[in-house]
Amino acid sequence: MRYVTHLSCTLCGRTYAPDFKYLTCPTCGETGILDIHYDYEGLKTIITKAYFKNNEDHSIWRYIPLMSVKGIETDSTLKVGWTPLYRGKNLEKILGIKTLTFKDEGVNPTGSLKDRASVVATIKAMEGGHTTLACASTGNAASSLAGNASKLGLKSVIFVPKRAPRGKLTQLLAYGADVISVQGDYKEAFKLSRDAINHYGWYNRNAAINPHMVEGKKTVAYEIIEQLNFNPPDWIVVSVGDGCTIGGVYKGLHDFHALGLIEHIPRILGVQSEGCAPFYKAWTTGKPLKETEENTLADSIAVGIPRNPVKAMRAVDYSNGAWITVTDDAIIKAIKTLGSTEGLFCEPAAAAAYAGLEAALDQAIIDKDSHVSVILTGNGLKDPDTIGKAIKGPVKLDNDLDALINHIESTHD
Ligand SMILES: *Cc1c(COP(=O)(O)O)cnc(C)c1O
Ligand SMILES: [Zn+2]
């Protein structure tokens, strides 16, 4: 918090003090998303490569000076972040790509990248004296908020759309959240959450509205860069729903670049599902973002009206990146590919990023001579129903060795 200089509105540019008590710009209203700015000159005096080398905190909190939290209670949270960055050698060979790395966000405490934002939300709520937090979510933000709130003894109220996957629902019920299943789509869940938050004064964890959420998510980019010894990849690939994650990825890269820790900002590939691709459509047509259908099995990126359009569009534009879409079939295929070649089990929205890489190689958007980092945003155990429908079940046999031998010899000849 010490290094936050001011907040600015992404629409009108008005600026506000670091401890500004509203989450969005009062002049622009709900769409006036704020951006948080830092004193990079001041930060440069402490944030050096040596700072990281000597830092034994292997969680998101190793970056506290670069974040908008005061740092109280951070030693009581779940351990979020410092997830593995794997080299994907098997897929490098199959795809013929020079270097491929996977950031496995599925191993965060509640199983998705959303923990990076939720844990920040719980700390900000405590800073402001709140005891209840709320959000609307297609699933992961919800289960993540519920788990992180539970650890700190806070209450959570969650608004989910009718279609939220069972794995995610079960998870957040187990964390003890108050769960309201809004009989409608994400849009309606979002509206009801907003009205209830205004009515009760709960802490608002809706990622797009709350600028501190991007500040949590940006740490995923810090980690990728650190884990690569400050040699940035050529491309970072990430799937996009509301646009907060991709906005965070860019923000993290921007911070490290401004601090002189990296020489160039990797290009960012934003991946959307063909059945729900408002960003892709706006980018390819040059027209303003338009509400679209939410027609994809990748529920975490089924967002017809993205709430963080400015930060997401900037992430691709400022990094000289690109947008791409993938089909549900390609997503399912990607789940199988990642699982069977690299031991990485992903939920559909996470596998979408990898499907996006395959498409970008096919379309020569990404050169095979590149280093590409793919962010796998969520764990496959989140949505076993959807994935299960698309993969072949087990072989059913009696307890009979001959039958087994028969089976093995008939399939492996
Ligand atoms: C939320 C989420 C995304 C997309 O993040 P946005 O900020 O909504 O763009 C991608 N994958 C998973 C698994 C998610 O939970
Ligand atoms: Zn404004």
Please give a handful of descriptors for the protein shown.
binds pyridoxal-5'-phosphate, 4-stranded parallel sheet, 6-stranded mixed sheet, binds zinc ion, single chain, 413 residues
Brief sketch in words of this structure:
With 413 residues, the protein is an alpha/beta fold. It has 16 helices and 13 strands.
How would you describe the overall organization of this protein?
By secondary structure, this protein is an alpha/beta fold. Helix content is 39%, strand content 15%. The strands form three sheets. The chain has a six-stranded mixed sheet, sandwiched between helices. The chain has a four-stranded parallel sheet with strand order 8-7-6-9, sandwiched between helices. The protein has a three-stranded antiparallel sheet with strand order 2-1-3. Strand 6, helix 5 and strand 7 form a beta-alpha-beta unit. Helix 4 packs across helix 5 and helix 4 crosses helix 8. The protein is globular, with a radius of gyration of 21 Å. The site of pyridoxal-5'-phosphate has 20 residues, from helix 10 and helix 14. Zinc ion binds next to loops.
Topology:
Layout: E1 4-9, E2 15-16, E3 34-38, H1 40-44, H2 49-53, E4 85-87, H3 89-95, E5 99-104, H4 115-127, E6 132-136, H5 140-151, E7 155-161, H6 166-174, E8 178-182, H7 186-200, E9 203-204, H8 211-217, H9 219-227, E10 235-239, H10 244-258, E11 267-273, H11 278-285, H12 309-318, E12 322-326, H13 328-342, H14 348-362, E13 371-376, H15 384-390, H16 401-411
Helix pairs in contact: 4-5, 4-8, 5-6, 8-10, 9-10, 10-12, 13-14
Bound molecules: pyridoxal-5'-phosphate and zinc ion (ZN).
